[in-house]
Amino acid sequence: MSFEAASASVSALTADPQGFDRLRRAAREESPEALREAARQFEALFIHTMLKNMRESGFGDELFGSDQEKLYQGMFDQQIATHMAQGGGIGLADLLVRQLGGRVRRSGRRLCRRRAVRDRGGLSMSIMGTGISGLLAAQRALAVVSHNVANVNTEGYSRQRADLVTRNPQALGSDFVGNGVNVGSIQRIYDQFSVAQLRAASSSASQANQYSAMAGRVNDLLASSTAGIMPALQDFFDAVQGVANDPTSQAARQVLIGTANSLASQFRFFDAEIETIRRDGNAMLATAVEEVNTLSAAIADVNRRIIDAGIGARPNDLLDRRDELVRQLSERVAVTTVEQDNGSINVFIGNGQAVVAGNEWRAVAVVPGAYDPEQLEIAYVNAAGPVVITSQLTGGRIGGLLEFRSQILEPVQNAIGQLAYGVAATFNEQHALGMDLRGEAGGDFFTSLGNAGPPPSTAVMPHGRNTGQPAAALGVTVSDAGALTASDYRLDRNGANYTLTRLSDNRVFQLGGFPAAEVTVDGLTLSLDAGAIASGDSFLIKPARNAARNFGVAISDPARVAAASPLRGEAGLDNAGTGTLGAPVLFDRDAYTAQAYRIVAVDAGGTGAADGYEVLDADGNVVAA
């Protein structure tokens, strides 16, 4: 086929809107005639597009002689017949390119023999091959550049570079003449140290952002100048001062009860908000764990594809994709990676738990806490069952959520409960020492938190694997609100020894005599009310877990506010001395008997001067001296 015929064929093909579609369909036909026509069309396209410049430069005479049409006709007839005998039209384009490529090389060698510059023995250089190698190398390099430009906004993409190397030279006597250039490799611009640093920084930043976001919610709750607990407390004590200034005022007493109810509502609101934050944190934790599983499965799949590419291969885009997946995984939890000989990587979390090993992955899951079902734990799932690894996990959103829960959420809830216990117990104790408008001794002003519930103010949670039979009923009461701490505790039995561990600082108290007798630690009195504690059993104790939830006002009648002192002192009319009596204070209501008492100065030493005192009851009996 002449160049002019090829050009005419290409012009006709491009002028027909359906020309290329018919050409593609013809290439898939099984008949020799259809294949022959498709081959001629492919030949025309090849000649027109690839060899136009060579013919115009004068090389065409060497490639296409006067008998080229007959030569090509015989060549294609023979090759197509052979190709059909071997199974049809699959790969026809590849067959055509190979045949035309061989034609070009043979013609190029003839051209070189005729026209090449001869040197040192007359050996010729393949100008054609050298030039084509440069064109192909440049084409590959441009393809790499276009790939870089196309992926400029692709997350995780690493810029690639085509590395050129010289082809093996041709020996000319004692010298060697170069044969052009090849693309030796396509490298991605990648620094393993920088990637590792980015991964670690992403994990730390994600942890800090999650921690800050959750801590901000608690801070907004506590720091409000109008809706916080401290403003409510201040309003309450201002109302108490108002009653102290005018104990008989019904309005002042009503304001006191109103501010007390507002304070109680604020305590309950805070507890409800903290529980909402806890539930939100649990939902976020479950979502993050599910994302860890999804990313682990994706990394394992990319590992499989890299392994399939073969040892030593450079599937740059797959490597970038895997690095990006690992980076995303590090935003959920801190990870470490180890590269394998086959190109895959193993990915570990915690203290070496493998979530990806080659082309396989292992799941992690959220499970209810062993003591508190509402406190979710993270478990590594293996053949033996889930293994809790919560304490081993750091970094990423998971690390931020766990850190927030242990350092802010639990301590804040305990501190608010401790405050509720302190306010209720202290004010009730003082209120009991007063007298109300009906002349009766004051009772509890706030709900007694020790008896409130359900749920009880102090939460006692047995471990899910306790074996004591019948199940132990552990009694824990706050006997001294002033000594109460904001910590949780854990009671353990090991053989005959019972210990109580304060979890805020891991201080261990030996409980001698327990459970036969009650023991008191940090204002908590512990007793075994029923059942048995077996060796190895343990209990988690949250002394003030539900105290804010149970905080309430016990009275609603203003007349029941015990603002008056039940004691009054006055000097006798016949006193000769200058001494005065301060306001008497009732400090033990249970031991007090309501009656008139007299304090008399006596001469106990017989010196003629008062050197002692006696307390007489209404009948004149000495009750104290």
Which sequence of strands runs across the widest sheet?
12-19-14-15-16
Approximately how much beta-strand content do the residues carry?
15-25%
Give the class from helix and strand content and strand pairing. alpha+beta
Q: Could you describe the largest sheet, including whether it forms a barrel? A: 5 strands, antiparallel
Shape: elongated
Number of strands: 22
The number of helical runs is 14
End-to-end distance: 139 Å
**Rg, alpha carbons:** 46 Å
Summed over residues and divided by their number, the pLDDT gives a mean of 81
Low-pLDDT segments, ≥5 res = 50-77, 83-125
Task: Please explain how this structure is put together.
- The protein has 625 residues and is α+β, with helices and mostly antiparallel strands.
- Helix content is 45%, strand content 17%.
- The strands form 7 sheets. The protein has a 5-stranded antiparallel beta sheet, with no helix packed on it.
- A hairpin with a 2-residue loop joins strand 10 (377-382) and strand 11 (385-388).
- Helix 2 crosses helix 3 (32-50), helix 3 (32-50) packs across helix 6 and helix 9 (192-222) runs parallel beside helix 13.
- It is elongated.
- The N and C termini lie far apart (139 Å).
